Amino acid sequence: MGGGAVYMIAGRKIGSEYLAIATLSTIGLGVYAAVKRVQSKRPNPLTDSPPINASSAEEEAFIQEFLKSAEADENKKEHH
């Protein structure tokens, strides 16, 4: 097979096809790492809930009970 461009890097001959593969792999890994970083910072709406700003402990307990009953009603609707 014919030769392509060959480059001397650190005293070794490296073919241009290997440089292209290394470049594309490096870019791909960089994009993958950036996407994973953004996804890890994004809040999960199923597990992360906003804080309850109640004026008293009684009000906070009422809100939590209401949310539990609303979730239970929603689960019943999904199963029927």
Notes on the structure:
The protein has 80 residues and is mostly helical. 61% of the residues lie in helices and 10% in strands. It folds into two domains: 1-43; 52-80, no CATH class. Strands 1-2 form a two-stranded antiparallel ribbon. The longest helix is centred in the middle third of the chain and has 26 residues, at 16-41. It is rod-shaped. The mean pLDDT is 86.
In short:
This protein is 61% helix and 10% strand.
Show the helix and strand layout.
Blueprint: E1 6-9, E2 12-15, H1 16-41, H2 57-79
What is the global morphology? rod-shaped
Question: How much of the residues is beta strand, in percent?
Answer: 5-15%
Query: Any idea how many domains?
Result: 2
Spell out the helices and strands N to C: EEHH
Class from secondary-structure proportions: mainly alpha
Kindly state the percentage of residues in helix.
55-70%
**What value does the average pLDDT take?**
86
Low-confidence stretches: none
